[in-house]
C-alpha cells in the first residue's frame, strides 16, 4: 500500500494564494481555501502536475467570482485547450460562464521574462524533461527568493540563473527515483540522489535544498539515500508542511 499522502501529485502553495502546478490542488483544498487560489502557474502539462485542475471548475462552478488565472506557456495553454478542456475529456470551462462571468483565463508567460503573479515576481527557466518544462524562480517584495526545478534531469541553465540571483533562500529539486532506478531517472529526465550531487555541484552558493517529487514506490529509499549524502543543507521536503523564509 502506498500512503495516499506520498506525493503522487504535485502542487506547491505559495502565500496561500498562488499554486505552482495543480496536481493535488483541488483534491487537497476545498471551499474558501481553494477559492483563495486565484493564480495557478503550470510548469508543464504532465498529469501529475495538472490532474486536479479540471475539477476546480466543476467543484467551484457557482462560487468563482473572479476568473482563475492559469499561467502557462502558449504551447501548454494550447495543449490544455486541445486535450483537457475539449468537451470530450472534460467540459470546455474556458467557454462556460456562471452568473459572475468567466471561470478561468489563460495568461501566457514567456521563457526568461519575469512576470508578476499576486505581488510575486516569477521567472520561468527551461529545464530538461521529456516535455517542455519550466523551472521557476519566485521572488517576493522583501527580497526573499525560492526556486523550483519542477521535473528535470541533468540541466544547466537553471543552475546558472540561480547562481546569478541576488539572493536564494531555498530550492526545491526533483529527486524522483532512488539510485537503483537511476536508469529510469535518466530515461524519464528526473534525478536520483546520485545525480543530485552532480547538479548541486553547479549551485555555487549556500542554499537550503529540499528534495521533492519522490515517487511513492521508492520514497523511503530516496529518503535514506539523501540522508546518506550527509549534506547539511539538503533534506527531503515534508509533505503538507509550511516552509517559511
Ligand atoms: Zn513531468
Give an account of the 3D structure:
This protein is α/β, with parallel strands linked by helices. The chain folds into two domains: 1-108, 4-Layer Sandwich (Metallo-beta-lactamase, Chain A); 110-237, Ribonuclease Z/Hydroxyacylglutathione hydrolase-like (Metallo-beta-lactamase, Chain A). The longest helix has 10 residues, at 74-83. The chain has helices spanning 25-28, 31-35, 47-50, 53-59, 74-83, 157-164, 182-187, 193-200, 219-228, and strands spanning 12-14, 18-20, 39-41, 68-72, 97-98, 101-102, 104-108, 115-117, 120-126, 134-139, 145-148, 170-174, 208-212, 234-236. 39% of the residues are buried. The mean pLDDT is 96. The protein has a seven-stranded mixed sheet. It has a five-stranded mixed sheet with strand order 1-2-3-4-7. It binds zinc ion. Zinc ion (ZN) is lined by residues 44, 46, 129, 151.
